[in-house]
Amino acid sequence: MTQNTKHTKKVSSKPKLSRRLLLMGGFGGILATGSMHGLINSHLHNAGALSASASIQQRRERIVASQRGQIMARDGSVMAMSRSVNTLIASPNVVVEYGVERTTSWLATVLNQSPEKLSQALSDQKSKYTVLARQVEAGPSRQIRLAITSGEFGGLRLEPTSRRSYPSGELGAHVVGFVNGEGVGQSGVERFYDLELTGQPGRIISDLDPSGKPIPVGRYDPLAARDGSSLQLTIDRGIQHIAEQEIEAALATYGSEGGSIIVADPRNGDILAMANRPVFDPGSLHSYNGWSRSFLNPAVSLIYDPGSTFKIFTMASALDAEAIRPHSTHNLPGIYEYWGLEFQNWDKKTYPNQSMTSVLANSSNTGALWVANRMGADRFYDYVDLFGFGRQSGIDLAGEVDGLVKTRGSLTWYPSDLAANSFGQSISVTPIQMVSAFSAIANGGELVQPRVVRSIINPTGSITDTDINKKRILKLSTVRTLQQMMYDAEHAVAGNKSLSTNYETTGKTGTAEISDNGGILPEQTIASYIGFGPLEEPSILIMVKIDRPQRGTWGSQVASPVFRRMVNRVFRYKGVPGKSQT
Amino acid sequence: MNNVVKRRSRLFEPDMVAWPELDPVLLLIAVMLPLVGLVAVTSARMPQGAENPTLFGAETLRHLCITAIGFGLCIVAAQIDYRRYGSKSWVLYTISVLLLAALLVPGVAEGDGPRRWLNTPLISFQPSELTKLSLLLLLSYGAGKSSSSSIGSLKTFSFGLAVLLIPTLLIVAQPDLGTSLIILTIGGAIGLVSGTKWRHLIAVPTLAAIAGLVSVALNPYQWTRVRSFLDPSLDPLGDAYQAKQTLLALGSGGIAGKGLGMGTMKYQYLPAAPTDSILAVIGEEGGLLATSLIVVIFMTLLARGLWIAAHAPDTFGQCLAAGISFQITMQAFVNILVVAGHLPVTGLPLPFISSGGSSLIISLIMMGILLNIARASHMSQKP
Questions:
Q1: Taken in order B252, B254, B258, B259, is the CA torsion positive or negative?
Q2: Cα B156 to Cα A355: distance, rounded to the nearest angstrom
Q3: pTM (2 decimals)?
Q4: ipTM of the assembly?
Q5: Sign of the torsion formed by the C-alpha atoms of B153, B154, B156 and B157
Q6: Domains recognised in chain A with CATH numbers
Q7: Strand, helix or coil for residue A340
Q8: Residue of A24, A28, A57 lying closest to B192 (CB–CB)
Q9: How many Cβ pairs within 8 Å bridge chains A and B?
Q10: Which of A2, A79, A187, A201 would staple A177 via disulfide (CB 3.0–4.6 Å)?
Q11: B174-229: per-residue pLDDT in tens?
């Protein structure tokens, strides 16, 4: 085998060849230099901007919702809780690949919805995002998840969210409150304790590919959600139930459209029950079309003139200031002219030689006025302030208002206001302020801040009790004296409907005129009764307030019997020893 | 036994060729580049590995086998005297042209896109890769055969140009503008080395420009590529997207890279990560150190190839050595310039490294031939 000689011709012109090869090499060199230029540009000079841009392109931050805490009654029974549900989201452009018809008919059976609604949601087949169904429960969610992972259906995904439910319904609805569609508290403790209940949402920062799948070697930086704390209310479910029944019955009996019953423990400010009408069901808010007046908690958000119940505070102030003595007697006119205005008693009668006790027993307006005048406006309003009127009681419920107190020196105050204020007119208060102030009469002279949440249970299980805030505002001797006077006065009233035959209680009726644009509404009253017991060591304070009763006008006719029924049922429920049992 | 030795001696001429006489620089390049490719492509396929581990395993194994076969063919080619191909290069050329023509027959190439692949039940094969080799052989052989006076004649030049243009136009028709331009560089390289007159040689880039314009006119997507290269905001999700993503990958890699396998851009952000954009994957994971090393390796390949051409014993060898090294490095630099954002997207793979069996095998055979020419140059300089 020899070489083919045809191809062995020697290179004839070496210099020319070398020049041409050098030219090719030079061209390659230029391209190599260009390549290096481009590479150094991207790798080095623009690296910061480029890698940041790549990072932004891949980085996704997903919020991990925290579980909202529960709201429990005093006994631990659940009044508000969050359940995990899912939002079903579809990418119609992907669903097309799996068959729209097929997907909708399957989803319709799983979700128990009409296929028409679903196929309408999927009608824009170029769209990448549409919400197919909200609040999909655990069962259907599991079915859908299974079908997605098996590849049977696609273009669907579930996003976890939560749904607030209120197993107690209307029971204690104003205390519990409600959340909006985003799960933010709107009223009651849901709003007041929104921060504690919400907790801290977490987030996951991760690198995703363009289709949304995580990149295994990419960044994954989770920050776990901290679930919200749960709340244990001071509300006693049993007492709340009694209060709800009684307010409902009272409204029916007296033809009223609104009212409240509040049961509190005067020793520590615990609200044991707070039942209001009108009421709402936090579980079916959608049926109210946005907003309803019934969402307002009248016990903290609506003001009224307290009327005669306020005379207790007038009397307590005068006793404490030593302006009067309990047994001093005076001739009190039935009609009293004060600073150009005439004030009269409910029966317009003159009572000679009146004791202070009989002022209470007869619920004498002129008596109260006489007492307030004897104290003087300065001292009177000092005490009004001490009792907490004109500012929020500090109860842990959203939407509390201040009330309206014109004090001496303010522009709108007339000397005649002292007279009206002494028997609870021309002064506006909230029921919770009355409960708070009256607690001081019941517990020996300390103003306690009412509370509806007893303790906050954080997700790790540690329990923080809420504070009990007390402030001494009356001397103990004053309260002892006043309680005796009130007891005597209540027993001096013939046919007093507030007194239980079984339990010893005392309190005060009130029949208030309703102020309206400076005047008063004729024939309209707010009938109320506040009282407490047992007298040895008062542990239960009950306030009954019936708005604009159509059958009956007076507190003694309308509110007293309700108070008595409440005493009988609540005291028995709490195991307070009664006369018949001992 | 004697029989076997006798047959082998006819083919390999063992008295002339021995292992140590393989050029160490070329050999190192021929081993290094496919191994870099094997590692890089496997990394670039990691997303597929997560989705479909079986397919990932099969593809990786296939790549491994092709690399091994490629090395084998490279060594075999290094043993075969390149001058033996001369007279048979017509046959290879004819087969290439027929295969390219067959691609244009409806139903032969799959899909609606460019007709680049010949699919047989056993293998998928890219005829344009074979065309590069057959053109290199045929044109070099032709140049070597022509006398030094006839090489400057218009007749010889026209003949060579016709040989060059037939497959080029067939590839333009696929359409694959990038590959057809690379094929023209083969003609240009061999024309230069063979001593073709400058005024004739000018025709090649002119033709390239005309071919480019015609192709762009016929294929709107190519015009889009050019326009989006000039103004990326025109097409933020198409080719400009690809151009942008490769830059993002390079920038993410910085100087030293994120580390092997740690790149995130290959997860569907980089289009054609295992093929055309493989350098971007290398750049993200290996940084400037890795990408500049690759530039250096290809530049070394060109320099070594041209040095071998300068020392080749005959014009056939000169043309073949220069053509092979120039063609491979031109394609490499075009690919790198595209990834680095200095050229519009062309769709050319990075030789040896991008995933693709036809390209890898043909490139390694070319390296084998280059090794053989180097050996022959060495022999011819021996006293």
A1: positive
A2: 142
A3: 0.69
A4: 0.89
A5: positive
A6: 83-113+126-163 (3.90.1310.10), 237-280+297-573 (3.40.710.10)
A7: coil
A8: A24
A9: 174
A10: A187
A11: 878 788 889 989 998 998 888 888 888 887 788 778 877 877 777 777 777 777 66
